[in-house]
Write a structure and sequence with these properties.
The protein is about 25% helix and about 25% strand. With about 180 residues, the protein is α+β, with helices and mostly antiparallel strands.
């Protein structure tokens, strides 16, 4: 049996581990409320708020003030939202967006570019960041509480493997 015809080992198969959607507005007023509405409407999950780590007087940001909201998705829902987010960028991702460990991020300039989202005048136009973590089965051994252990180098997802996975599964053009 040739290498091409062999079935892929289940442990070597790459999957979408998590997708994180982030909208950072820099203020804790109605813009942040609007950003939370957008993420909740898009994902069906309640977003988590992120606070400023330090005071920046020029931007009128105080330490501890909520300035962004995020949603983390896993499983089928993560793949569905990723597919919709890729439509917003015409299924194109820059090669520089991929890390050596197979993760990648891209930005969406306007949330109305995502299929199924409509413009809300009370919110305005906001963009978002989409961060994707790709992994293989067995990834959690690194983070579990009992008997945590290292993951071998040949089991980690490389940049080239991540690019090939995105091309095959999501029909993405890497530029």
């Amino acid at each position: 049996m040739s290498i091409e015809n062999q079935p892929i080992d289940q442990m070597k198969a790459i999957k979408v581990h998590s997708v994180v959607l982030n909208i950072s507005v820099g203020s804790s007023e109605e813009k942040l409320e609007g950003a939370a509405k957008i993420l909740e409407k898009l994902t069906g999950q309640k977003p988590s708020y992120r606070r400023a780590k330090k005071t920046i007087k020029e931007f009128k940001i105080k330490k501890g003030e909520p300035i962004a909201c995020i949603v983390t998705l896993r499983g089928k829902k993560a793949e569905e939202i990723l597919d919709r987010a890729l439509e917003a960028v015409n299924r194109r991702i820059k090669a520089e967006s991929f890390t050596d460990r197979g993760n990648f991020s891209f930005g969406i300039k306007e949330y109305i570019d995502i299929p199924g989202m409509s413009y809300d005048p009370s919110i305005g136009i906001l963009g978002m960041d989409v961060c994707v973590n790709l992994a293989r089965a067995g990834w959690r051994v690194k983070y579990r509480r009992v008997k945590a252990s290292k993951i071998g180098k040949n089991h980690l997802v490389t940049k080239q493997e991540a690019i090939e996975f995105m091309k095959e599964k999501f029909k993405v053009e890497v530029i």
